[in-house]
């Protein structure tokens, strides 16, 4: 079995594959100071509860946008799973694509993993949109190479800024309001967030496609993709497990 680990700024996801089959997923909040022992106590207990032996893990791969966690996740894999950790972005990890941007070393591993997974299933040219701490729009060309993208603040980050940077505005949930024009503070905020992001997403997709000059498939992922799917008719697919599937594909490319 393969342990595929996706560490984001807010949450971390540990996915377990048996061959091609995603058999289980576990999530926890990302904390830079969490130790290998703490990871192991949490993860192995959940594995046992779901009925499989942690000793069945024979490989591990990590994509992380929080480099501080990498050493302890490496220790987790080496000490508790007795396996070497392959880390996306390190020299010994082959991606099988070209990174065609001005500073390839700056490309986030999460963005590359998403492109690889999206291209494998849908081909290119392709836009992947990831609704995370940032909302990222990433592009693959017809050959699957990463050719750039757009970064914008994530929905939750915007909501948190609303709350922290003002004296009287409350924290709100992301949901579609009954009307665009709010008759109270919370509905007005929800309208600004929801319809503002609908406009941002639609506009950026159209502008990217126009600038690229070719038809492009659009694949969305991340927890909030489903919130916007009914209002944005530009998604060709929503793939909740895009990152995990991308890690599986990269693992295979490095095992050949």
- Judging by the overall fold, what is the CATH architecture of the largest domain? 2-Layer Sandwich
Gross morphology: globular
Number of domains: 2
Count of helical stretches? 7
The strand order across the widest sheet is 3-2-1-4-5
Major beta-sheet overview:
5 strands, mixed
Q: In whole angstroms, how far apart are the ends?
A: 17 Å
Q: State the order of secondary-structure elements, H for helix, E for strand.
A: EEEHEHEHEEEHHEHEH
User: Quick one: how many beta strands?
Assistant: 10
Strand content: 15-25%
**Would you give the CATH topology of the largest domain?**
Nucleotidyltransferase, domain 5
Q: What is the fold's blueprint, element by element?
A:
Blueprint: E1 2-7, E2 11-18, E3 21-29, H1 36-49, E4 59-64, H2 70-80, E5 85-87, H3 109-122, E6 126-131, E7 134-140, E8 146-153, H4 155-164, H5 185-212, E9 217-221, H6 225-228, E10 237-238, H7 242-255
Parallel strand pairs: 1-4, 4-5, 6-9, 9-10
Antiparallel strand pairs: 1-2, 2-3, 6-7, 7-8
Helix pairs in contact: 1-2, 3-7
Give the tags.
single chain, 256 residues, alpha/beta, Nucleotidyltransferase, domain 5, 2 domains, five-stranded mixed beta sheet, 7 helices
């Amino acid at each position: 079995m393969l342990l595929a680990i996706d560490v984001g700024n807010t949450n971390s996801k540990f996915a377990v594959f048996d061959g091609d089959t995603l058999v289980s997923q576990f999530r926890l909040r990302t904390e830079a100071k969490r130790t290998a022992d703490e990871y192991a106590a949490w993860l192995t207990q959940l594995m046992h509860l779901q009925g499989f032996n942690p000793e069945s893990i024979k490989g591990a791969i990590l994509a992380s946008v929080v480099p501080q966690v990498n050493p302890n996740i490496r220790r987790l894999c080496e000490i508790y799973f007795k396996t070497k950790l392959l880390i996306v972005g390190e020299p010994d990890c082959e991606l099988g694509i070209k990174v065609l941007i001005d500073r390839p070393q700056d490309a986030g591993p999460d963005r590359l993993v998403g492109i690889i997974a999206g291209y494998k299933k849908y081909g290119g040219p392709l836009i992947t949109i990831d609704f995370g701490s940032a909302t990222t729009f990433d592009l693959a060309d017809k050959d699957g190479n990463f050719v750039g993208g757009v970064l914008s603040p994530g929905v939750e980050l915007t909501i948190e800024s609303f709350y922290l940077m003002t004296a009287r505005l409350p924290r709100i949930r992301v949901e579609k309001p009954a009307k665009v024009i709010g008759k109270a503070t919370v509905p007005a905020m929800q309208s600004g967030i929801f319809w503002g992001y609908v406009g941002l997403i639609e506009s950026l997709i159209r502008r990217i496609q126009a600038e690229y000059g070719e038809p492009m498939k659009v694949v969305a992922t991340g927890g909030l993709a489903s919130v916007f799917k009914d209002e944005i008719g530009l998604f060709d697919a929503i793939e909740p497990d895009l990152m995990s599937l991308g890690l599986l594909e990269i693992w295979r490319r490095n095992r050949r």
